[in-house]
Design a protein that fits this description.
heterodimer, A: alpha/beta, eleven-stranded mixed beta sheet, 13 helices, 23 strands, B: 249 residues, alpha/beta, Rossmann fold, six-stranded mixed beta sheet, 10 helices, globular
Amino acid sequence: MSSSAKEVENLIAQEYTQGFVTDIEVETFPPGLDEEVIAKLSKIKNEPEFMLEYRLKAFRHWQTMKDPDWAQLNIEPIDYQAISYYSAPKKDSDKPQSLDEVDPELLDTYKKLGIPLDEQERLAGVAVDAVFDSVSVATTFKGKLKDAGVIFCPISEALQEYPELVKQYLGTVVPEGDNFFAALNAAVFTDGSFVYIPKGVRCPMELSTYFRINAANTGQFERTLIIADEDSHVSYLEGCTAPMRDENQLHAAVVELVAMKNAEIKYSTVQNWYPGDENGVGGIYNFVTKRAECRGDNAKVSWTQVETGSAITWKYPSCVLLGDNSVGEFYSVALTNNYQQADTGTKMIHIGKNTKSTIISKGISAGKAQNTYRGLVKVGKGAENARNYTQCDSLLVGDRCGAHTFPYVEVKTPSAQVEHEATTSKISEDQLFFCQQRGLSAEDAVSMIVNGFCKEVFKELPMEFAVEAQALLGISLEGSVG
Amino acid sequence: MLKIENLHVSVGDKPILKGLNLEINAGEVHAIMGPNGAGKSTLSHVLSGKPGYNITEGKVTYMGQDLLDMDPEIRAREGVFLAFQYPVEIPGVSNIYMLKAALNSIRKHHGLDEVDAMDFLTMVKDKIKLLEMDEKFLYRAVNEGFSGGEKKRNEILQAAILEPKMCILDETDSGLDIDALKVVAEGVNSLRSTERSFLMITHYQRLLDYIKPDIVHVLADGQIVKSGGPELALELEAKGYQWVEGQAA
């Protein structure tokens, strides 16, 4: 074996660095789901009455629905009665008010994840709402945000403090019966983030949430709701990791964004859930519904995602462009290695006049992975002069992986302009050899070439995320050449 | 510096190099000329470690080490540089980024710290002038949309920055007009030193007017059939390759 092949072997042997389990006391529901479980969950969280009704309506709707099977994915049947729908650190009777009160083991977990809260507090203006399993344990920078009038808190807390605000917007972008996983989420979601930016306010810092699944056999169903009122601006970052387990775990989140007149929301995700091992055992099922509505004129929503984790990703962050001149953007890097599968893309629904959307999708497939882009551009009758530009590029590493592209276009307005460009390429032996001849290892060369391929998307990420995303691509590609 | 002994190389079952011997000392410039299919490019690929060649016999010693046992990137870090006949394009990766990554991997190999970003930029800007290249080239993707001449200049720029010990130039003159050839040759000449050796592979004597070799070899049918001073190249130009091929047989 040549020494570079050995290096590659060693890299493959490296374990998923975030695959540790935190040993702390938790309160967990027995597996199973019925109306009683939902009532218990709602009670534990001391929710207002309307929430229980909302959850039960969603649950009843969900029971009439079937798992979607149209994606280019191979999914083992999921037993929804074998999942526990609630898990939280036991000490939640007395919620921590500051970091001092947080279980030190938990803080240690965050340190391993590379997001030491105590340090992050000092870091340049990033407020972190950390979600550990189902309950938010620490929320920082609240004071500073409060001064600006910004609400940034766990959604469970928002239900206590601002029930009317939540009621007004929850489920208005993604209705409780929208799709199978969204309905399940509406019935059982336990926590997530709530953001409200008042009129005319530019959020003084980037908002950031790290989610983490810890307890075994628990699904994580987080719910995020972001409302940017007129003339406001917010940038929200979301990062995800999960410990390594042999069983598949379900993650079915819903994210709703509402952008009013002249408001702008930038939502960035770096998703690194456990992808399963090199034989395709274990890993997270990441079935997520993300949708934004540009409700007012000149509103703008931008989704940027870097998806490197999860055994299966099923996710289509979308924009409904209701307001005239509103803008939707989708920048995506989806990388699959080993046996990972991804079916991801976006939907841009043009309803208002002069609405504009841009889709830049970069799919990278290595190992035996399958990577699918699926996108819908729909221009309604009244959407005069709507414009869309779609660029969809696939890069293959090796010859055992696959890339697929399914663009759907529906246009009902003659004045609309829709452009679609797509390419598929492969990292060539010549490129690899050239880089090696300049002194780079094969791994570094692949990482550099892939990063170059993703450049257009990375430049949309906030600085600190862009650096993390580049590093993540390198790690995720380990073992892809050799 | 480099010693090739009885080197036999095949591609598939087809023998290309058939017992090649060559020794290059530090500071020397050697030219290898020969007709199409003689094995010139094979030699450059085998020395730099390109996959796809079977070495059936012989050995290559570089700075006292077994060169053929090293991975391509290790050879590069130890100072073996190949200026490609057909430089590849790497979309999205800027020239300067690639150069810095390459230089740092070489420095790391020698136990040195990564180069300081400002120092690096100053150095690169210095060297780029030498090759009469626009600074804009630094920020363009590696070789993407470059003309033939620009690609070749870019190869020499890389050599100038990575400062190899053993420089192999594979048909660096091909595809160059006379002005570009002069610039590239000047770039190469500026790299000549008592510690750096060159192996130039070329079809034509023309390049040797600008880069004066110490020794000229003629490669035919997988072997060096004749070696001599610069005058050999002129003789070859006058008499054609049939002259040496006749001698080999």
